[in-house]
């Protein structure tokens, strides 16, 4: 009886608790502190990763003056957070949770949650396209970058795939595009427009001998003037002529913009290049021989090719908009078609050639270069075994031009003809599906042309009869919309916005417009990730595993999404996945 009375008095006392409840409260507080500590570690890891810097140092021991970014930042924050400092200094030595395996586990959780977040963001999109490209890292290992444009879990909603022209990707039998098409027949293969345009320039260089020699000479000039001694001479010559400091650009076989940049910089610094070569020519050094050879190649032919290809490549530079991730196939096709039309006008314009020729002659005279200098080697005699035949073009005759007409007929016209024919051959004119996409471009002359649009509708299993009805009604809706809003619908994105409001009435056209906007123009999105790869996998960090590299690359590329990941979700996933825990997390 006494014990019962004592128990009731204890219950009435303020703050009095049972042993069980006290143990429970202590457990909750311990779990709260442990979870808070792990979340702080996760937050620091997220900061370091999204900044693209290394986590660990060469020596992370207590005696090291640089224990790596993660340990150093953790201890720096602990200076101003007493609870964290106390946990680091007084907590169990075997449960600090700063080991690299713990770091990798948490980073992998971040990567998983980031992928889940990306998936959830785009699940409302009905269709998606695959974009892929690959590049070698610092350890010469091929790394594949895959971009999903409007991703959805159901692979059978894939409407397109974009790769470069490598056989392993584009092959008709065993290529990636062929294998995917067996699973998803409607996934039309789109050869990266940027790679196609570069192939056009490459084909010009292969087909026209003088063009091939010209670009080879540009690279030789770049290599010579990039030497330690010649480069300093080149910079000093710029100062003497009061020219802003300019660096020459190397020629790249895979980037047409590099050819334009090289022509542009050489055109700007042409007098400086001549001064530098003349200075090197008079030296008692091996480079004097190279300088003389380069000077001998700088003649009227070189000057004309420089100005001509500058004008040609300047037009293709405009097409660099193809790398914009918001660009769609319809806009890209119009841009390419406009570029082709410009080259056709340029080819048929005598005034355009005269302008380039006049500029070339002026530059040659200003720099005391002989205008009559031929740009080929001297003509050779016809071989004896061919002398008995009548030939229109001698077997081994080289170009030896001494007049503007020779340059026009043997350089100007052949180069432009090759460019025009290659653009027509390589781009969308032979693809009925992509032609159908062009008819959804409001400023296209074939806008809503049913004869072209039906191929696109059949490819993606649309009701062609319904499309025919919608095509008749839509122009009236567009006109009414433009009159009411005092605006002009000129782009696919604007058309898509309008159709979104009338999905029930224009269900099939809305579906086709979404697909047209989804199909990618190029694989530039993948190539952007390669710059991240070069920053991520460097010489000191070339031993990381592919799993770790994949997680880090994802977290760097998708840093905006990573920053929104809830640390509590990271903590819960870590609690459920991590084994052999030495601290209580639940």
UniProtKB/TrEMBL annotation:
Residues 488-559 form the HAT C-terminal dimerisation domain. One of its GO terms (molecular function) is protein dimerization activity. It holds the Pfam family Dimer_Tnp_hAT. InterPro entries: DUF4371, HATC_C_dom, RNaseH-like_sf. It comes from the Eukaryota. Residues 35-151 form the DUF4371 domain. This is Zinc finger MYM-type protein 1. It comes from Lasius platythorax.
């Amino acid at each position: 009886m006494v014990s019962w009375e004592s128990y009731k008095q204890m219950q009435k006392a303020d703050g009095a608790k049972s042993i069980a409840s006290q143990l429970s409260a202590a457990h909750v507080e311990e779990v709260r502190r442990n979870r808070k500590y792990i979340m702080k570690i996760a937050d620091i890891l997220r900061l370091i990763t999204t900044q693209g810097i290394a986590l660990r140092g060469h020596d992370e021991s207590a005696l090291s003056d640089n224990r790596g970014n993660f340990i150093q930042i953790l201890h720096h924050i602990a200076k101003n957070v007493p609870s964290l400092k106390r946990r680091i200094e007084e907590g169990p030595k075997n449960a600090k949770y700063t080991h690299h395996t713990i770091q990798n586990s948490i980073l992998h959780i971040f990567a998983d949650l980031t992928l889940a977040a990306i998936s959830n963001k785009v699940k409302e999109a009905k269709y998606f396209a695959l974009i892929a490209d690959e590049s070698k890292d610092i350890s010469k290992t091929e790394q594949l970058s895959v971009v999903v444009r409007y991703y959805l879990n159901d692979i059978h909603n894939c409407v397109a795939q974009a790769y470069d022209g490598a056989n392993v990707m584009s092959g008709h039998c065993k290529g990636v595009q062929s294998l995917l098409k067996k699973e998803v027949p409607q996934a039309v293969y789109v050869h990266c427009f940027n790679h196609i345009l570069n192939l056009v320039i490459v084909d010009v260089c292969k087909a026209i001998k003088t063009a091939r020699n010209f670009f080879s000479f540009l690279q030789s000039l770049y290599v010579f003037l990039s030497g330690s001694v010649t480069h300093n001479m080149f910079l000093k010559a710029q100062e003497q002529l009061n020219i802003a400091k300019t660096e020459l650009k190397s020629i790249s076989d895979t980037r047409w913009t590099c050819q334009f940049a090289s022509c542009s910089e050489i055109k700007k610094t042409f007098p400086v290049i001549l001064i530098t070569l003349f200075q090197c020519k008079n030296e008692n050094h091996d480079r004097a021989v190279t300088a003389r050879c380069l000077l001998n190649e700088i003649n009227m032919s070189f000057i004309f090719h420089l100005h001509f290809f500058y004008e040609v490549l300047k037009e293709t530079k405009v097409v660099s908009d193809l790398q914009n991730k918001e660009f769609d196939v319809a806009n890209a096709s119009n841009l390419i078609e406009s570029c082709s039309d410009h080259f056709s006008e340029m080819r048929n314009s005598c005034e355009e050639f005269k302008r380039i020729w006049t500029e070339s002659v002026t530059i040659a005279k200003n720099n005391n270069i002989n205008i009559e200098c031929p740009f080929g080697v001297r003509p050779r005699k016809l071989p004896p075994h061919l002398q008995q035949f009548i030939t229109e073009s001698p077997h081994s005759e080289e170009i030896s031009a001494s007049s503007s007409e020779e340059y026009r007929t043997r350089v100007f016209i052949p180069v432009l003809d090759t460019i025009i024919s290659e653009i027509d051959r390589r781009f969308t004119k032979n693809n009925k599906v992509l032609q159908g996409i062009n008819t959804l471009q409001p400023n296209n002359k074939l806008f809503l042309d049913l004869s072209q649009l039906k191929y696109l509708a059949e490819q993606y299993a649309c009701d062609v009869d319904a499309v025919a009805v919608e095509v008749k009604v839509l122009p009236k809706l567009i006109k009414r919309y433009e009159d009411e809003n005092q605006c002009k619908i000129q782009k696919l994105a604007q058309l898509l916005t309008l159709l979104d409001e009338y999905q029930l009435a224009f269900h099939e056209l809305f579906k086709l417009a979404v697909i047209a906007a989804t199909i990618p123009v190029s694989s530039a999105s993948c190539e952007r990730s390669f710059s991240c790869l070069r920053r991520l996998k460097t010489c000191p960090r070339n031993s990381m595993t592919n799993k770790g590299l994949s997680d880090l690359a994802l977290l760097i590329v998708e840093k905006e999404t990573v920053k929104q990941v809830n640390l509590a979700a990271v903590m819960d996933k870590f609690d459920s996945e991590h084994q052999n825990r030495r601290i209580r997390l639940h």
